[in-house]
Specification:
The protein has about 1000 residues and is of the alpha/beta class. It is about 50% helix and about 10% strand.
Length: about 1000
């Protein structure tokens, strides 16, 4: 009795401690890309530098075991261990201790939607290949074991062949082998297990000869016959198996393997017979009949080897987008969740990690339920760890813990924003224009693509939209509607690379309607067509129907209604009834029309539909349309809408205000591992929106100068005008700081050539990854080399360099302004690796190049020397850095000073209000400003925007009276007077009460640096 009460008291105390700890909210994060070239030991070495920079939390790419050749970590193949390529458990523990020593946190990147497959290191997948539906892991993957085509029933289609199956088979590229009691099929880098029940084709092939050689009563012959009998009695993978029969199969096949290994080790005769049989099975090239036995054996396997091109139509497992080597897992199942999160939860419970970034939540069956499960599991793991620390010998069951935690869990689920979840979780959710993150998700916000596009738009001159439209259409000879383009590219993806997913949906719906007299006249073809049309018109990545007990939200209803309405408009000759039927099905409005037995299938269709739409949007828009619609490529960013030309100050302030109210701890990003261009590249390209006439003239000159450098492919110039237009923007954005025409490095030429190869293949206009056009690919590469690396004619390069220098001069101020806004806006700023200096990276893998942290450490140390932190020294230092702006130290200083200030005033930035500010005077439209205000603190943030016209042709920095004349910044109400300290320069700006201007002169604010953070130090 006493023990029970002590246990209850102990549990209550532990829960109180976990509850009181709350989530660790970073002040600022730093994203690091892990890999063979950058390990746990490398991260440990730079922790002091990141701390000096002002970072509070390190944010790592995935650290669980990935494919051995992984370059990014998202191809996880084993959730049960850390990635050995990154280091050992001990090395990770040492990193965790170093972070704790600096009071820093660690955010883990979790990949719950998919795993890397078709590699031996994925034990789950290898077991499925061996046992098919009878595998204990068959339910872990999202596999359709009962597709429409009968020949694919209980088969996993493996699209790994480089050619048609028959050609590959008869070319002798398959090779059977034996190892430790098991048989395998080798093909290139693949090593596929053979189903145990088909071992008989190998072991029994020479049984009669062996019996004649050794005698039918020989112990080894009898053992072989016994093994063959046991294999014949294995529960088959095509049966409808109970859990008990699956366990029996799993047990007995392993016993059989051990017996086979022992027999072959003991009997040279049988081992030789098996080797001869394997050699015979492998066939003889130029003799097709010798492959018949292997063909028959492979037809008995739970997998069907297929040409990689069939994946789009016949693949039977859900993939990550259209990547055949990434298979979706069913993390909605409790056992799959538990096994795939065991290491992550342990690291969180031990305090070695403090937060989580969830990759691709839109691929999950039910993102909301997943996030709640993640939070609940963290609470359980943390409570168990706390309990073990105080009473290591005491055992407490999960049931006891859950019972004790139930009141808190219920409060969390019902509390909404007012009751914060205890684990800091961010979701890589891409919000479409006007879309809001569901407020009932157990997360602290997105990873920041919404902010990225919002802040980027501030530096695009919306007044010049029509002018840029004309420049683009005149140069390319086309006038493209982005909305129509995306509708077309999404349909292309559904017809080519993701047609199997559409076929799966339409067949699901066809089976449901076939037994319903109201809907059975909707044919399979008409359903397939209508589903494609609705998805092509869906304005968001996905909807979030959670089941009939909850129903769709108003937001989801509006999005589905909008998609159906547009699909009807685009297809006036198609009967509206089929669109209405699919709409009502997706929204479960017609569920009462179906018998009880069919309703779960109806819900299943709606849920599956939601998992399919995200990949189609990503592949059709981000990975296709964004490489076709090149009007102003700085707008072609993940989560962006290139049709929206710029962000108004009012819109910028409105979104920031909403973030304060709803998601104050969401991440703020400007560069990530997934962005199409780095923040500094976009900042440069944005300049073109301010100088459309100069841009048009430059394009005409360059096109004329470079026309002779093009080749002709299929009767047309290559690259075409659209790709050439993209190339010039790319060069302007990525042109090395200070590079003269003669100094263009071979490395830079190669980077641009590689980028154009990727861009043109992603565009899928003249070439693609699936159907490469080598002639066009080579022509584009040669064009890049000719215009950049041919020394015989430097006219283009000299002209280009002059224009690029001007764009870079203006773009730098855009970049500094953007960085300042990110580091001070509501939310948690994230610095992508290396971007504290100028970073002119393009899309991956370019943005994953190694970062020179030693150089950054030395530069930061020099900037922070005591003499330079003195008041006068900081002003002089800023003047010096402006004079040498190309070296990037100005961005490093700004980043460091802002991050340190934010770390010292965490309460202000985490909980302070957001007050939009306005400038007054002639230059008022060239300023973005706001105040962060708490009960005791006020900080003003002021940056310039759209400064090309202010700088003039001489490229002067936007500083001082000559630029800002008499314009002033209006101060927050009630704080018109006072003294403000410039965080960057330590200058003190005094505004006397009663001043008629009621503000601070912009010429003073931007006297030495064209961005400012002003701390009110005295009333």
């Amino acid at each position: 009795m006493n023990a029970g009460r002590i246990r209850t008291d102990l549990l209550a105390d532990v829960i109180a401690r976990v509850r009181a700890a709350g989530p660790r909210i970073p002040a600022a994060t730093y994203r690091l890309q892990m890999g063979k070239q950058f390990t746990f030991r490398d991260v440990l070495a730079i922790v002091p530098y990141l701390n000096d920079l002002g970072i509070t939390d390190v944010y790592l790419s995935p650290i669980l075991k990935a494919r051995p050749d992984s370059t990014h970590g998202y191809d996880v193949c084993d959730h049960s261990q850390l990635n050995p390529a990154l280091g050992t458990e001990e090395e990770f523990a040492a990193l965790a201790r170093e972070l704790q020593r600096h009071a820093m946190g660690l955010i883990l990147d979790v990949v719950p939607n998919h795993m890397a497959v078709n590699h031996p290191s994925n034990g789950w997948w290898m077991d499925v290949l061996e046992n098919g539906p009878a595998s204990i892991y068959a339910s872990y993957f999202d596999i359709n074991w009962l597709p429409v085509h009968p020949h694919l029933r209980n088969k996993l289609v493996l699209p790994i062949l480089e050619d048609q199956y028959g050609k590959v088979l008869e070319s002798g590229r398959f090779e059977m082998s034996y190892e430790d009691g098991a048989f395998f099929l080798g093909y290139r880098e693949h090593r596929l297990p053979i189903a145990p029940e088909s071992y008989s084709a190998v072991l029994g092939h020479r049984l009669e000869n062996l019996a004649g050689l050794l005698g039918p009563d020989h112990d080894q012959i009898q053992e072989l016959q016994s093994i063959l009998t046991s294999l014949g009695h294995l529960p088959g993978y095509t049966e409808e198996l109970t859990a008990e029969r699956i366990a029996e199969r799993n047990r007995e096949k392993e016993i059989a393997k051990r017996r086979i290994a022992a027999l072959l080790a003991a009997s040279p005769e049988i081992a030789e017979a098996v080797a001869e049989t394997l050699h015979e099975l492998n066939g003889t090239v130029d003799d097709p009949a010798t492959f018949d036995q292997l063909d028959a054996l492979l037809n008995e396997q739970p997998y069907r080897l297929a040409y990689w091109r069939v994946a789009g139509e016949e693949i039977t497992y859900r993939r990550f987008f259209d990547i055949n080597d990434m298979a979706a897992i069913r993390v909605e199942l409790p056992n799959v969740f538990s096994e795939s999160h065991e290491v992550v939860l342990r690291l969180l419970a031990e305090g070695k990690a403090t937060g989580v970034r969830v990759d691709h939540p839109d691929g999950l069956w039910d993102p909301k339920a997943y996030l709640e499960q993640l939070q609940r599991s963290y609470i359980l793991a943390r409570a168990r760890a706390e309990l073990a620390a105080v009473e290591p010998e005491r055992e407490v069951t999960d049931e006891e813990l859950i019972q004790a935690l139930t009141p808190w869990l219920a409060a969390l689920k019902q509390g909404g924003r007012s009751t914060p979840w205890p684990l800091h979780v961010l979701v890589e959710k891409i919000l479409s224009e006007g879309e809001a993150l569901p407020e009932d998700w157990a997360t602290h916000g997105t990873t920041g693509y919404d902010f990225l596009n919002l802040v980027n738009g501030l530096f695009v001159d919306g007044a010049n939209r029509r002018a840029i439209d004309r420049v683009y259409s005149q140069f390319t000879g086309t006038a493209t509607s982005f909305r129509d383009l995306t509708n077309s590219t999404k349909k292309m993806i559904m017809l080519v690379s993701l047609s199997s997913e559409i076929n799966m949906l339409s067949n699901m719906l066809d089976r449901i309607t076939e037994s319903n007299r109201w809907y059975r006249d909707f044919t399979l073809n008409s359903l397939t067509f209508a589903i494609r049309e609705i998805i092509a018109c869906l304005p968001v990545y996905r909807t979030y129907l959670a089941g009939p007990e909850f129903g769709p939200s108003r937001r989801d209803e509006a999005n589905v209604e909008a998609a159906v309405s547009e699909a009807k408009r685009r297809n006036p000759r198609t009967a509206h009834s089929i669109f209405d039927f699919i709409r009502d099905t997706l929204l479960l409005r017609n569920i009462a029309d179906f018998p009880e037995a069919d309703r779960s299938s109806l819900v299943g269709f709606a849920m599956k539909f939601q998992q399919v739409t995200g990949p189609i949007m990503a592949k059709g828009v981000e990975d296709t349309a964004f490489y076709v619609y090149n009007r102003l490529t700085s707008l072609n960013e993940v989560g962006g809408n290139p049709a929206q030309f710029g962000t108004s100050l009012r819109e910028f302030h409105r979104h920031n205000g909403e973030r304060v109210r709803h998601w104050p701890h969401a991440m703020l990003a400007t560069s990530t591992h997934d962005t199409k261009r780095s923040e500094d590249v976009r900042a440069r390209i944005n300049v073109l929106s301010e100088i459309p006439d100069d841009w048009r003239a430059a394009l005409r000159r360059w096109s004329r100068l470079n026309a002779r450098r093009k080749d002709r492919v299929d009767g047309a110039a290559a690259p075409d005008a659209n790709d050439e237009y993209l190339l010039y923007q790319t060069l302007l954005g990525a042109w090395p700081e200070g590079a003269a025409p003669a100094a263009v490095s071979p490395e830079f030429v190669e980077r641009i050539a590689d980028y154009m190869l990727k861009a043109t293949k992603e565009a899928k206009v003249h070439t693609s990854w699936v159907n490469p056009n080598d002639c066009y690919d080579n022509a584009v590469r040669e064009f890049v080399v000719r215009i950049l690396a041919e020394p015989s004619d430097s006219v283009f390069l000299e002209d280009f360099q002059a224009f690029a220098r001007r764009v870079a001069e203006i773009g730098r101020w855009n970049a500094l302004a953007q960085q300042t806004l990110k580091l001070t806006a509501p939310g948690v700023p994230d610095v992508y690796q290396g971007t504290e200096l100028w970073d002119l990276s393009l899309v991956d893998p370019d943005n994953r190049r190694p970062v020179d942290f030693e150089r950054r450490r030395l530069l930061l140390g020099d900037l922070k020397r005591p003499v330079k932190r003195a008041k006068a020294g900081l002003i002089d230092l800023c003047d010096e850095l402006i004079e040498n702006v190309e070296d990037g130290r100005i961005k490093l200083l700004l980043t460091n000073r802002a991050l340190e200030f934010r770390r010292e005033h965490q309460n202000l930035f985490a909980r302070g209000s957001y007050v939009p500010l306005e400038a007054q005077g002639e230059q008022r439209h060239h300023v973005a400003a706001f105040a962060r205000v708490s009960e005791t603190e006020t900080v003003l943030v002021v940056v310039p925007r759209l400064v090309a016209g202010l700088m003039g042709q001489q490229g002067r920095a936007p500083l001082g009276l000559a630029v800002w004349t008499t314009s002033v910044l209006a101060l927050p109400k009630g704080q018109e007077g006072g003294i403000y300290r410039n965080v960057f320069t330590d200058e003190r700006l005094d505004v006397a009460p009663g001043n008629e201007a009621s503000g601070l002169p912009l010429a003073t604010i931007f006297g030495h640096l064209p961005v400012a953070i002003l701390e009110r130090v005295a009333p």
